[in-house]
């Protein structure tokens, strides 16, 4: 077995962060650029109708992805166990976790196929767009199991192989773009072609992740450890539950936002959300790549009781995500029209509407970055209770009610402002709670 302390503890904190976070961030950014290209093809071929369908299906994709996050606890638990030199315990979690991934993935796929149309109607599908939504989800639903497996690229990073984790993400994105071009442009398969491209690219990468853990020299699949151990599943879900609930609740927020924006702004507002949501995802994904890199370090060093290093990593992480998100927001504010026009052609009213809405909805994204970094810290040290409570506060107590309250008083402008106001309030509270926690776990205490 490799001496992971050489990767996690024997180098300077900044060097370790760069080695883990740069590949993670690059992989996330390249993957998101490929998603942008995917949306570009849809926008050019299907226009406003295509972007409206994407806005409708986006919460559906988040529901599937929430199960990916439910199993994110696998990487955290294994990181802590390897930090405490418990390889046997780490391999038990690996084998049990992947067995449950397969079971949950298959059951989820069956459920979604059985209730596809009712779910789409709950999400706001109408007679004008439900056909496109069904066409897309017929290929989106089979992705479920592969997507959850592919999500374990964070585990590959967590055992010290950040380059392979980056390579998997890059391959998935680039191959997806190539297939997008073939299916949408050359074969004229429309929005269904985009979903099929994602299915094939995700499936190939998922098979590679499985192959990787059959040959890894850090931890590997072992027949004797495969079991349906409910205790391990409970621990995995306990850690992954904050992000799982967050994704489910985020899909609820987007559904509510879609509906309320449609009430006050009509179809043009729904199409605008399709563009705004992808731009928000670009910012979040860019920073989450960095957060995933630091999460691996925090989990390992927390497990080895190197609390001073945990504090150093968190400090650098906060400085970085706040600075980078501020730069991204400024670039967005000064180039909003160019960004929107990238997705839509020959529709000036939609461009003008989306530009105004995007600026209102995204200008406080640095606070979102702060919140995600702090929440990432609590998950990395296995304090899932705090992480879950703040996700609930963010979505259930603040965001969803504000969509209705501000929408009632300020129409669509209020709908756009609900997200930045709720994230800013919860980020400020969580920042001070994080400072309190890091002082509590410092060597002096």
TrEMBL record:
Domain of life: Bacteria
Classification via SUPFAM superfamilies: Calcium ATPase, transmembrane domain M
InterPro entries: ATPase_P-typ_TM_dom_sf, MATE_fam, MATE_MepA_subfamily, MdtK-like
GO CC terms of this entry: plasma membrane
Membrane-spanning intervals of the chain: 20-42, 54-78, 98-119, 139-156, 163-185, 191-214, 316-336, 356-378, 390-410, 416-435
UniProt keyword annotation of Ribonucleoprotein present: no
Membrane topology: Multi-pass membrane protein
Record-level Gene Ontology MF annotations: antiporter activity; xenobiotic transmembrane transporter activity
Keywords: Cell membrane, Membrane, Transmembrane, Transmembrane helix, Transport
Name the UniProt record assigns to this protein: MATE efflux family protein
